[in-house]
Specification:
Number of helices: 3
Strand content: 5-15%
Distance between the termini: 16 Å
Number of domains: 1
Oligomer: single chain
Largest sheet: 3 strands, antiparallel
């Protein structure tokens, strides 16, 4: 969802670069979290890593709501997405 929304927010000429940044961030987080998660499991078992994961998913959901709650407004004919350049994209 975040990648799709990000692609809609940038010009076509910038989409390849922005997508590369998204993929770099995604893959880097997997690389780092594998090491950290493995060490936490060795030291504390599965409960702590699962609780941390649940907390991070909750935080992510809250942040998505906070950052994107004003980007979509209900109109008479449906929904309109408010773009960064104050343009409107009708859904």
């Amino acid at each position: 969802m975040g990648t799709n929304f990000g692609m809609e927010m940038v010009d076509k000429s910038e989409q390849a670069f922005v997508n590369a940044l998204f993929m770099f961030g995604w893959n880097s987080s997997w690389m780092i979290s594998t090491v950290i998660g493995g060490r936490l499991i060795e030291a504390h078992g599965y409960t702590l890593p699962l609780m941390i994961t649940a907390g991070l998913y909750l935080l992510s959901s809250i942040l998505y709501y906070i950052f994107f709650r004003s980007s979509e407004r209900k109109t008479d004919t449906g929904y309109a997405v408010i773009l960064a350049d104050n343009g409107r994209y009708k859904i």
